[in-house]
Design goal:
seven-stranded parallel β-sheet; about 15% strand
Length: about 375
């Protein structure tokens, strides 16, 4: 039986550039899942002048964009203010707002006539002066949300723990992990790899994500005569140095379909992100995508990389040597053991589909009406 929530209107303002941000599949996946469940939803995002906009009803590149780091969110918020002001004139929809835009919209959000929710897919990941500035705005966003938001959405229980001191009052918070399309969960039987194990990392190629360890893995494997192929997909401040290593197959930025194809050709997904307030509280989208492809996973051991019941298909190790035990273990599996790893991974992925996340989101918003 359908409830009144089933037909609720949702206006989603995101700071992610949906045509160029690998992590934007969360917005697209939830948009599709919510729309398929009967919701009237639209997303507004900053357009990229060099990218073709989404040819989709309800997804609009209508926010101002800036190429200057540190000014992107402020500029985008100016056009977002006009959008939510127009939405407020009639029957205002539920409003989702990316934390990055909240500091410049506090007046409009406090006066918004319907429920609004802060969306936090992870605290700032940049380092240096820009990172410190972003942390200041992140804390300000949650203070504003604590004053006037109906609720907030984070990616994990650990994430909620660092949010709570800044949200002032106990506003309701819902954890929504990284997700995956149900159609991307492979049903193909995983066969034992050839003698060469294909490793893959997808995501931002930034130093603070621990990607320099990908070179250390290759050095370690060469000393032990373990045959590996190292695939990476993404861009970032370490892209050029890794491109210059002839042992690494650098695919550059790939869209979601090409990511899916690449993962289908690999054996082990890598999670090099180190412990700390950013990655230990995260729920990396790449983990859900690795699981959907039926990959074994090797990574750093911290809460952001943990999933319930993941011992068979995941192997997490200490930050200074997280790869050796897992790669050694997975390189020696029998065909039957590889198939068991594949089945365990895809079973875990079924709990991470956007359809499941949409159900949880529905229940949360209904609870705070």
């Amino acid at each position: 039986m359908r409830t009144s929530w089933d037909m609720t209107r949702i206006l989603w303002i995101t700071g992610r550039r949906l045509t160029s941000d690998l992590a934007s599949s969360t917005e697209i996946g939830l948009f599709d899942a919510l729309e398929s469940r009967g919701h009237d939803i639209e997303i507004h995002y900053p357009g990229d002048s060099d990218k073709i906009p989404f040819d989709r009803d309800g997804i609009h590149p209508s926010l101002n964009n800036s190429g200057l780091r540190g000014f992107k969110s402020k500029l985008a918020s100016k056009s977002a203010i006009k959008i939510i002001t127009d939405a407020s004139k009639d029957d205002a929809p539920n409003l989702f707002v990316d934390w990055r835009l909240v500091p410049w919209m506090s007046v409009e959000l406090s006066n918004y006539p319907a429920n609004w929710f802060i969306i936090d897919r992870g605290p700032p990941a940049d380092s240096g002066i820009l990172g410190k500035l972003q942390w200041r705005y992140w804390m300000k966003s949650w203070r504003i949300a604590g004053d006037s938001a109906s609720g907030g959405m984070v990616v994990s229980d650990e994430h909620e723990k660092i949010v709570r001191p800044h949200s002032r009052q106990e506003i309701p918070i819902c954890s929504l992990s990284g997700g995956v399309k149900k159609s991307n969960i492979t049903s193909q039987r995983r066969t034992k790899p050839d003698e060469t194990l294909n490793l893959v990392y997808i995501g931002r190629i930034d130093r603070n994500r621990g990607v320099r360890n990908l070179v250390s893995i290759l050095d370690w494997a060469e000393k032990r005569d373990i045959a590996l192929n190292m695939h990476i997909a993404g861009e970032g401040d370490e892209s050029e140095s890794l491109r210059n290593d002839p042992r690494i197959i650098h695919h550059g930025f790939l869209d979601s379909e090409d990511i899916h194809l690449l993962l289908s050709q690999c054996d082990v997904g890598l999670l090099p992100m180190p412990p700390g307030p950013v990655w230990s509280t995260s729920s990396p989208l790449k983990l859900a995508e690795y699981a959907a492809a039926g990959l074994a996973v090797v990574g750093v051991n911290h809460p952001g990389h943990l999933l319930p019941g993941s011992r068979e298909w995941m192997d997490l190790g200490p930050v200074d040597d997280w790869w050796s035990k897992g790669i050694s273990r997975f390189s020696e599996l029998s065909p039957e053991e590889w198939n068991s790893v594949h089945n365990s991974a895809t079973t875990a992925a079924k709990e991470l589909t956007f359809e499941r996340l949409a159900e949880r989101l529905e229940g949360f918003i209904e609870s705070v009406r």
